Amino acid sequence: MRTHMPAWPARRTIVLAGVLNLAFGALGAMGALITWSLIKAGVPGWLSWLACVVFTAAVTLGYGIVFGPALARRDPLVKAVATIGLTLILYGLADLLWTTSGGQARSITFPTDNSGFMVGQVQVNWTQVIALAAGVVITVATGAFLRYTKLGTVMRAMANDRDITATLGVPVRKVEAAAWLGCGVLAGLAGLLLADLVALDATTLTFLVISSLAAVLIARLRSITVTFIAAIVIGVLHDLLTPITSLTNYRDMTPFVLAAVALLVLSRHQVMSQSREEA
Predict the structure, then answer these.
(1) 90 in Cβ contact with 23 (< 8 Å)
(2) How much is the pTM?
């Protein structure tokens, strides 16, 4: 997980766990499937939802404790693909335990699905409102956490120099474990919401994270706020293309086209700024 605080000197990229968690979607998918199975077995809804979050948090924390220290000093490319193995394992288990060969329809619903309001000619339910509000709250809370809390300050220090931070007596492994745990909790919450809003399908939820990376690229792995805004813009443009018959088949390219354009524009701006400084 990466983020950036505007007040941080030299505009450095903050690395919380040091590893890009590409297993985020697979964790949420398997947690949601566990929730679906528990609800089907008669377990109360709230307890089934909690089981999803506990599962994703435990798996993510376990992975971080076992593999996090070994990955801490590896090359950026190794860190970027480190969780692909976990993704494939979880995806394989989900397909094995909840096979789709029989065409069984699965879904998770919340009480808030049944009520809402109209925005023009569009029906909006309260689950969708909660999902949007959760994104805003998580964005603001994460920024405040990194800026104003002791643990957040330590994470920022580790981003600047992990070794120096360790020599100051900071328990870097505990800090990394906290980052992994937080990521796991968010994966569970996202899995539950997306299973309701998008689809309870292991393939869809697992690889949804690929499209999400476009927003991260637009933000250049530096700003949570820019990432959130970019994700909203991508989603809106994606849906606006749906009614246009000639472009409907290409709408899934929206995240990557926008990311490519943003990177080209930002790179050009950076080159021009450097040229002015050198002049």
Answers:
(1) yes
(2) 0.83
